[in-house]
Amino acid sequence: MHPILNKNxxxxxxxxGMFKAANNFDIYDPENNQMxxxxxxxxxxxxxxxxxxxxxxRMTPFHLEIKTTSGEKIISVxxxxxxxxxDVEIFDEKDRLIGLFKQQFFSFGGxxxxxxKDGRPVCTLQGKWTGWDFKFMKDSTELAHVSKKWAGMGRExxxxxxxxxxxxxxxxxxxxxxxxxxxAAVMCIDMVFKE
Length: 195
Hints:
The chain is mainly beta. It is built from 3 helices and 12 strands, in the order βββαββββββββαβα. It has helices spanning 46-51, 153-158, 178-194, and strands at residues 9-14, 25-29, 34-40, 62-68, 73-79, 87-91, 97-103, 111-116, 121-127, 133-138, 141-148, 163-168. Strands 1-2-3-4-5-6-7-8-9-10-11-12 form a 12-stranded antiparallel β-barrel. The protein is globular. The two termini are 30 Å apart. Mean pLDDT is 79; it is low at 150-160.
């Protein structure tokens, strides 16, 4: 696991664009406002791009790569075409499967089961209908929290750009592999629940 994931606080900024098909984010260290990672969806096919501008956007496949600013791959996140629920695969820097996100049917506000590569439960991602507030829970213990940081009414009103703050709690050790899954899940929230 890359040492950059030892941090506990990340600011995720979606790229601004009126007519964009790809999901691209920059990840900052909020303490010094320095960009530390990028998330790009570089290899979109023609039909995926086309469907991204329709009501079927939430069903389209995606493949995001999270890298350091120097280009070192940290995590990749993949999902195929979906109809009823999303099952997302998470891979490490060497393209080894490290975990899965399985969206639960009929969950209010959105809920993912986060599993390790063998399908064993690691934690859940739970959200609220009323706003951008998601928690990573292991039983009754909160591991991390994601909230939306409003960038201003005009910007939110006329673009699809969102900013998120991820706070991983101190009860998650710096070298715990669950950090990879938590960061990967944050990249999926918008595409699975909110689009």
